[in-house]
Amino acid sequence: MSINVAIDGPAGAGKSTLARAAAGRLGYIYVDTGALYRSVAYYVLKMGKDPKNSGEVIALLPGIRPELKYIDGVQHVFINGEDVSEHIRTSEVSMNASAVSAIPEVRQFLFDIQKNIAANNDIIMDGRDIGTVVLPDAQVKIYLTASDKVRAERRCAELIAKGENADFETVLEDIRRRDYNDMHRETAPLKQAEDAVLLDTSELDPEQSLSRLVEIIKSRI
Fold first, then answer.
1. How far apart, in whole angstroms, are the C-alpha atoms of residue 97 and residue 178?
2. pTM of the model
3. In terms of DSSP bridges, do strands 74-79 and 140-145 run parallel, antiparallel, or are they unpaired?
4. Which of 37, 57, 87, 169 could disulfide-link 97, Cβ–Cβ 3.0 to 4.6 Å?
């Protein structure tokens, strides 16, 4: 039986970075579900459609073939054969990923992909509804978070490192808006699963956060 670790939490909490590092340390496969939603948002924007218009997004789904491939141990995201791993990390795509993820048809569209990976591998999967909806029977569930101001500071540092402009107040506003949207959407809203362990990294540095995450996982498998 495969081991499944579900990590949920709000935008900018460091889920992807920490989950990827923990998977590497434990020898598991890391599954970034947010990348799948980002890839859909990227495709919608590329096609000149509005990610907030559910009708336009749903109409495009039959023509989208998202894939997660692991190349030299690193996850790459493909849409219809195109590697979009770098393209989906812009601020524009990030904001619109939240919009498409609120569409029930999009969530159902990506659901089977996520379930199939988890059924056949020891994985760490992160997202917004992994422990509550996608992998409700996961052996380990963690709700990873940090204060909105700390998350905004980290996000600004990440954008600056990529050579992008980053205004703290703008990033903070975006994070608060995403938090509200994710927690109040009708389908699979962001929330802590009843049996999830809360991990708040507001006062922890990256190595401390990783060590605590790995410690929690090891204690429950």
1. 10
2. 0.78
3. unpaired
4. 37
